[in-house]
């Protein structure tokens, strides 16, 4: 809750530690997946606003999207918000075909 409030106040740097703590508490086997999804989604937004770790931002948002999708109608609003966020993120850099071919040849 604290991380969400701080993010809403645009205090992203202060929100990140609270959200990291929330993720540790909720874990992957959370009894309440909604809270786990919200923690991941909010942390993704905070890290994005701080310009930190784009691959982690994407990973957190993708996992949150999957959680909200699994919640059906209850998660629909958040699922759609995360989908819009993901659509705005730059696509991850892909490896050039020659690099990939070289790896397969080894």
At a glance:
The chain is an all-alpha fold. It has helices spanning 2-8, 12-26, 33-49, 54-70, 76-88, 97-105.
Protein model, in words:
- With 106 residues, the chain is mainly alpha-helical.
- It has one domain (2-105): Alpha Horseshoe (Serine Threonine Protein Phosphatase 5, Tetratricopeptide repeat).
- The protein is built from six helices and no strands.
- Helix 2 (12-26) packs antiparallel against helix 3 (33-49) and helix 3 (33-49) packs antiparallel against helix 4 (54-70).
- Residues 98-106 have low confidence and may be disordered.
What layout of secondary structure does this protein have?
Layout: H1 2-8, H2 12-26, H3 33-49, H4 54-70, H5 76-88, H6 97-105
Helix pairs in contact: 1-2, 2-3, 3-4, 4-5
Strand content: under 5%
Judged by helices, strands and strand pairing, the structural class is mainly alpha
Find the CATH topology: Serine Threonine Protein Phosphatase 5, Tetratricopeptide repeat
* Total of domains: 1
Largest sheet, strands/sense/barrel: none
Cα separation of the termini: 49 Å
Number of continuous helical runs: 6
Name given to the CATH architecture = Alpha Horseshoe
- Broad CATH class: Mainly Alpha
Helix and strand element order = HHHHHH
Task: Provide the helix percentage.
Answer: over 70%
**What are the segments in which pLDDT stays under 50 over at least 5 consecutive residues?**
98-106
């Amino acid at each position: 809750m604290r991380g969400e409030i701080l993010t809403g106040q645009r205090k992203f740097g202060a929100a990140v530690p609270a959200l990291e703590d929330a993720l540790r508490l909720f874990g992957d086997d959370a009894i309440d997946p909604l809270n786990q999804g919200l923690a991941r989604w909010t942390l993704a937004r905070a890290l994005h606003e701080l310009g930190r770790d784009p691959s982690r931002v994407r990973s957190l948002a993708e996992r949150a999207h999957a959680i909200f999708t699994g919640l059906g109608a209850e998660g629909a609003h958040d699922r759609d918000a995360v989908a819009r966020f993901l659509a705005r993120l730059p696509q991850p850099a892909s490896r050039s075909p020659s690099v990939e071919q070289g790896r397969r040849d080894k």
